[in-house]
Each structure stands twice: as C-alpha cells, then as structure tokens.
Amino acid sequence: MSESTVVNAWAAMEPGARFEPFQFEFGPLGDDEVEIEVTHCGICHSDHNMRNDDWGMTVFPFVGGHEVEGRVARIGASVTGLAIGDRVGAGWFSHTDPDCPCAQAGNHTLSPTSRAMIVGHHGGFADRVRVQSTWTFPISDAIPVGEAGPLFCGGAAVWTPIQKSAKPTGRVGVVGIGGLGHLALKFAKSWGCHVVAFTSTASKRDAALAMGAHEVVVGADPETLAARAGTLDLLITTMDQPIDWDAHIGMLAPRGRLHLAGAVMEPVSFGALGLIMTERSISGSSVASPSNTRAMLDFAGRHGISPTTEHFPIASINEAFDRLLAGEVRHRAILDVGG
Ligand SMILES: [Zn+2]
What we know:
By secondary structure, this protein is of the alpha/beta class. The chain contains 10 helices and 17 strands.
C-alpha cells in the first residue's frame, strides 16, 4: 500500500482569496497520527481570520477547517484505542509534544509545542486530515451524525469557562448568540445555571430562549446593562468586536468573572475600580485540553446537547462564508464533505 495519500481540499491561495479546489499529498503517516476521512467540518470565525491572514501567521495555500467530524481511515503504528472506521472528531489543535511539562500536567492548550490544525497544517476543508491521536476524539452515538464538529472548537471554547468557573447555583451571562454563544447557552443551562443571553439581534430572542436562556437582553445601551448591575457570577463574551467593557464588568457580582472567549483584536480597556472594589476578575482561554474535551463530549451526549446548524455542500464553501460573514447563519455552518 502506498504511504502517501492524495487529498482533495479547498484552499485560499492568498490573503482574502475565495476558496478553490486544491490537491496535495500527505507523506508517510506519523506513528502517533491518525488520518481522518472527513465527513463534515464546521466553519469557525477563526477560519475567516486565518484566510485573511488577520493574525499574521497564515501559510498559503491555506486549507482551513478545525471543527472536524469523520471516520478513522488510517492509524499510526503507536496509536492505541482507535480502530479503522471509528467516528471521531478534532478541533483547533492537531499536535502537542507529549513530553513537554504542560502536556505532562494535562495543560495541552497551554503548551508552546501545541500546533494548531490550520497554522502551517492543512485542516478539514478537505476529504482527509491528519491529527495526533492525543487530539483525536471518539464521538458517541448520542451526538447526531454530522453535528459534532462545532463542539471541537466553538463548543470547547465556551465549555472551558463554564466547567472551570460556573457553579450550578450561579448566574451566567453570554454575550453574543452565534457559533460559540449558542453552545454556551446550552451548556450553562444543562450545568444548572440561571442563564442570561445578551444579543443585539432581536430576532434571536426566541431561539435563545429555546436553547436554554432564562432571560434574553436585546441591545446593550448603558441603561439596560446598568439595570442588571451586580447580578452575574460569570459573563462569557463570544464577540470578536469590542463592547462597552465597563458596562459589562458592572453587571458582575462581587468576585464575578468576565471571561473572553471571542478573539477581540482591539485592546480591551476598563476602569481598575470595577475590579478592585468587588474583587472581580477578567480571564480568557482558548479551547479545552484533551481530557476536558472528552468530558465535554460526555456531558453533551448525556444532556442531548449538539449545535444548531446549517449545512452546505463543500462545493458551496464560499457561499457558506458569505452567509457567515453577513451574520445570517443560525447558528453554526457545517460543510458536508463526504458523498
Ligand atoms: Zn475555531
């Protein structure tokens, strides 16, 4: 059997370019790697940022896609616990040196050795992707086929602050009801929290309530937010645009936490007294460690949580991005790659 695999992908050839069909070849499979036959791949806003080289780290041709669902096609020599044909997923990270101190402590997302799926590595807008077994996750039948992909980036991004910082008795706010935010509502509701959704889009109100919000706040004018001063134990922001930081911090209860899950590129500015007098804190995180990703999948399966999605054939990848960027996707776009 040939060691190489020809991969049929969709790539942007330069910053900002539309995606176009692109073939490349994998070399020998690493001993610790899994080759996944991609069946579905979610579209994350980071795929757009990377396609545009917004973060200055994109390698072209650029094959995005880091919300992968598929089946194990090939297994490296040292991989255990996976079999050909297993349904699996993969997300933002693709490889981590298992011997680095961060990984040994279970903190793979913090490791300087961790490599991202779509940074100098071809992602899931393709019929095959290669991922270290550490970052390859079995998906149970409890999660509908074709719907798991967004859990691996958008889901993991909001799961981590909820799992680490939310108590079932707590009050959790979620700013933005897009790909990340709608999953935050579902997780926080099942976690047991009182959930408040914040959106600028009035038409998302009913959907937010259906997805687990106990209350929906439409608009972010200072009076509306001030009326909720001191009420939230955890407020997760999922937007990539600046918000009125002081007004949002003001909604936190004493020792409450503002957690940034959305990658705002502009500086975040706020008054120190908003933290000092009430011991509030501000934090951020990316996705979830391998063990915490598995815990998320277990939790999602047990509580019937999966993303709310719109599907597009991969040949319509550019139309899917157009719809995403127009803010029209409810609530996560998934590309159907196989068949
Ligand atoms: Zn992402």
